[in-house]
Amino acid sequence: MISKNLISQIRLLHHKKHRDEQQFFIVEGVKSCIETLQSNFEVVHSFATNRLSETDINNSDIQFISEKEMERISCLSTAPEMLCIVKKPTCHLDDLDEEKPLLVLDAIRDPGNLGTIIRTADWFGFNQMLCSEDCVEFTNPKVIQATMGSFTRSKIVYAQLSDYLATQKKRTVYGLYMNGEPIQKQSFKPNDIIVVGSESHGISEAVAAHIHTKIEIPMFPHAGATPESLNAAMAAGIFMFCYRN
Amino acid sequence: MISKNLISQIRLLHHKKHRDEQQFFIVEGVKSCIETLQSNFEVVHSFATNRLSETDINNSDIQFISEKEMERISCLSTAPEMLCIVKKPTCHLDDLDEEKPLLVLDAIRDPGNLGTIIRTADWFGFNQMLCSEDCVEFTNPKVIQATMGSFTRSKIVYAQLSDYLATQKKRTVYGLYMNGEPIQKQSFKPNDIIVVGSESHGISEAVAAHIHTKIEIPMFPHAGATPESLNAAMAAGIFMFCYRN
Questions:
Q1: Closest Cα in chain B to A125
Q2: What pLDDT digit, counting tens, does each position of B75-120 carry?
């Protein structure tokens, strides 16, 4: 059983405005919830439907609710078996390790893209990311969903990009462009910075001023019409693969 | 102006059942519609809102309709400026060129994934794809949307996979797995076949029986918890990048 008041409060968290005000967000699905409970994130409520049993989850703080109640609090069209309310972490620029590679995201707006980037970054050991303030927030339910739990292992900082890049004079800053040096011919260093631009406008001018090397993912030659671009998450993923191999 | 009857007919095409029955599908957005009109696809209706002018589109067969009417026929939450009704092509196994590389998709269910795979395949010059019959149909509006027009340059065949693979004895069949030989160390041949498995179950047993070499996209070593997998579209994209570079 869950109070009407709590249901209303949780439903507010479906909206960015209230996530920002209350500094909480929603994680859904058994796998993601369990990973969140095992991480450093602060979980303030966890709910499971009666389809799960306490032994499935091995955590005594979980509140069991009906499937109907779960449907009411879930953001998904098919309600999950488990849902957590989690405190938004506060990551600052000081938290970024200057000895490690950094992925910089300039105005990534699509939640699916950001989620896929976070998931892929986790795979390739990029555990820190700097997002422009106009990127979609990573606590958006669709982002969290697409990360498949990888957000729990990522340090994600939102800040003004060009100010930060101006302080990183000793590191090489790469930008992914449609035209540049072929990505597979680069020799990366352990603390490189790579910038991925927005889905529709690429890398913004203010950020471009800090880029040392433009790189591209070569298109296979076409006889006729050609595709316009690669998806931003795909481009970021191929870059991270090249960086690690 | 568009008749009520035609509006109803088009709205039926939002659903798979009616796309299958009528053998038509919907393409939305100016760029995708123009690419479709310039392709070999048979466009039976094209609509544009009054925000576009005839000179923008340079095609006299376009019917101009109001934004309200466009909203009624569109599948999108934000109606596009252009929408086409297109005849479903019929691609058969005979249409697949055995001298070229072939991407085989085993039960890819997520429309965004299939769309991203088609878009990325176009970038890397993989213009033919074989999909299992339980893959999402590529004429699903979300797939078409995610291809960004690339479906017009792709031959997409739906068939029973293991029967076809059994006939391709002279080609090497690779499968993307969580554990296999590192992808970056492979030397591919111009007519290789690569199999990508489903988001949740990987490559099915019947198909696995035809795979010669299991390959993997290596995960960067993690100190603690690790991600479970890469997204299927991401894995397919990284494979195609490796194949071409």
A1: B220
A2: 999 999 999 999 999 899 999 999 999 999 999 999 999 999 999 9
Residues of chain A with pLDDT under 70: 54-56, 58
Q: Which residue has the tokens 């980037």?
A: A117
Contact B148 A218 (CB under 8 A): no
Rg of chain A over all Cα atoms, to the nearest angstrom: 20
pTM tops 0.90:
yes
Q: Are the C-beta atoms of B131 and B157 separated by less than 8 Å?
A: yes
Question: What does DSSP assign to residue A161?
Answer: H
Which residues, listed in sequence order, are joined to residue B86 by a DSSP beta bridge?
A: B25, B43
ipTM value: 0.94
> How far apart (Å, rounded) are the C-alpha atoms in residues B115 and B127?
13
Cβ-defined contact of A225 to B38 (cutoff 8 Å): yes
- Dihedrals φ, ψ of B234, to 5°? -60, -45
pLDDT in tens, A12-22: 999 999 999 99
Nearest Cα of chain B lies from the Cα of A16 at a distance, in angstroms, of 19
Counting one residue from chain A and one from chain B, the pairs whose CB atoms sit within 8 A come to 104
* Inter-CA distances, A148 with A75, A140, B6, B156, Å: 15, 13, 42, 29
